[in-house]
Amino acid sequence: MPFSGKEIAQRIARFGRLLRRVAKTNVWPRLKTAYHFVYSVSYLTGVQTVRMIRFAGKRLVRCLAPVGRFLYKGLDFLILRHLRAIGAEAVRFGKGFPLAVRRVRAAFQEHPLHAVGQALLLPFLAVRRHRHALKSLLNLAAPVAAVCALVFTINFWSHQTFALALEYNGETLGYISDEAVFDSAAAMASDRVINTDNSFEVERAPKMTLAMVSKSDIMDERALCDSILRSSSDSIAEVSGLYIDGNFEGSVQSRSELDAVLDGILDNYRSDDGAQERVEFVQDVEIVEGLYPVSSIKTAEEMKAHLTHETMVDKYYTIVKGDAPLSIAAKTDMSLEELRALNPGFDDNIFPDVDVLIQKAQPYLRVQVVRTVEYTESIGYTTKKVEDSSQYIGYQKVKTEGQNGERRVMAEVTYLDGLEQSRTILSSEVVKEPVEKVIVVGAKKVNPNVSAQGDGISTGKFIWPLPSCKMVASPFGNRWGKSHKGIDISGNGVYGDPIIAADGGTVVEVNASGWGGGYGLYVIVDHGGGYRTMYAHCSSINVRVGQKVSQGQMIARVGATGNITGPHLHFEIRVNGVPVNPLPYL
To answer: CA-CA distance, 328 to 314, in Å (whole number)?
Structure first.
């Protein structure tokens, strides 16, 4: 915390008293004596150090002086004396011009021709007058010239090397570093030739002699290959050769023609809508310009036909009865994904005599396209079932129709020879949400012990008469040469299961015992409007004639009475007394 003014004054006064007390003691003289001692030691040390440095410097100068004098004399002997002589002669040369003028003038006074002779004699007089300077100048120039000659010699021989002079078919082709270069060039020349008639052959034993040549004169494999082809035949042209995966395919007269052929193949796979895409060949395609035999030259049309010919053709498998997607994949040694990629809608067309593509035609030069596409796809709606406890089990009614939604998708699609190989979703945006389908289903259970009077109200819609089983064992129509007037509903363990009224109405006929004309125990319910339903082969009957029943009310149990082979429910719908197929009504 800060001090007050009074406290500060008290502390200053206390410090002053302390100083006065120290001054009265013997501490101060001792401190002064120590100070003088330290100063004296430092002074003496500094003086001694300066003396030692001066002494060492003098001894070093005394030792190096002979070396300096020797170096100076050597430099003077080699260069300086010559420079002094040249300088003195330069002064004399400058003074010689007035002297030359006087001599020419005096000669002219004697005779003009004497002046001409005197002028021609001046260079010789100048050389004699300055001969010592010229000698010194030559002494300086000689070492420089020697150094330049040495540098030139080293540079010349550094670019020279031993090589093999190659003589092929009586003609000197050039120089190579070793025999391996010729072997490689010979193999390259053979690869460039489409030797269909075996008329072209590279000589494998040329004449080689050792020579000293410049490194720039040594040929590499490609240059030597051109020379071999040039000397081997007159049918050689400067054309552009095409290589695919390192294999020679042929040559075309000009690079522009070959580029046009390749670009035309790629253009066949490009889209016309300006989509963002990347089109490229699958194989490694290289164009090498050089010398090629005329026999290997193709026209642009021939080259295009060669590159686009099919190495594989379309193959199909014909579906037979009993085939399924997995069995077709096993028979054709393919995966389901491959079959679906080759055949859009594959799973929906599994029918006898339908052809399935199992191998697509493949061109010699294959093309891959990576395209960014944007499209709209449908979003399927979901179905929700809502139970209604006031309706019996089996009742069903659509409350809200479902609607598919829409999604905008951006994807990167990869095609190989026009066939889609993969699809990567880049972004997805829902533009329309799907509408859920709502179905109201009955939740009211059938009480098998109740045979109370129903309401008898006909809804106009029929529900499934056997809630415990949905399997149709025998459909409506001809069966075993006879007309089957209804459908048989059956499954494991259906015997004794409750049978319910397909719609409300009045019971008009009941056969509670006996053969019943082959129907066994049965019930017939009238629903009004000419519609009646029949429930046959029952094991027991729970209603009587004239009784009103409600839709979904239990009226009987599944049995095995009458002319049957096993327990089931025979169900009929009759319109104005004529049996119809019940399935469209249920």
So the answer is: 17
> What band does 194 get if pLDDT is binned at 50, 70 and 90?
low
> Which residues fall within 8 angstroms of residue 244, CB to CB, at 6 or more apart?
283, 284, 285, 286, 365
Q: What is the pTM for the complete model shown?
A: 0.41
At residue 183, what is the residue type?
D
Task: Name which residue leads in pLDDT, 422 or 443.
Answer: 422
- pLDDT surpasses 80 at 489: yes
Looking up tokens 């963002």 gives 276
DSSP secondary structure of 197-264: TS-----S--EEEEEEEEGGGB--HHHHHHHHHHHH-S-EEEEEEEEETTEEEEEES-HHHHHHHHHH
Cα distance between residue 355 and residue 493, in whole Å: 42
Tell me how far the alpha carbon of residue 585 is from its chain's centroid.
57
Answer positive or negative: Cα dihedral of 37, 43, 47, 48.
positive
Q: 501, 465 in Cβ contact below 8 A? A: yes
Domain containing 180 equals 161-233
Among residues 127, 158, 189, the one where a domain terminates is: 158
Residue 330 belongs to some domain of the structure: no
In this prediction, residues 531-560 reach a mean pLDDT of: 93
Through-space distance between the first and last CA atoms of the chain, rounded to whole angstroms: 99
Mean pLDDT in the chain? Answer: 80
**Cβ neighbour number for residue 251 with a 10 Å cutoff:** 27
DSSP letter (8 states) at residue 514: S
Claim to verify: residue 302 and residue 413 sit in the same structural domain: no
Instruction: Using the structure block, give the residue that is written with the tokens 């000659």.
Output: 149
| Nearest one of 284, 288, 290 to 242, comparing CA atoms | 288
Position 469, amino acid: C
Residues 12 and 141 in one domain: yes
pLDDT at 199: 56
- Do the domain assignments include residue 120? yes
Collapse the DSSP code of 536 into the 3-class scheme (helix H, G, I; strand E, B; otherwise coil) and give the result. strand
Query: Mean pLDDT highest for which of 40-54, 233-247, 278-292, 307-321?
Result: 278-292
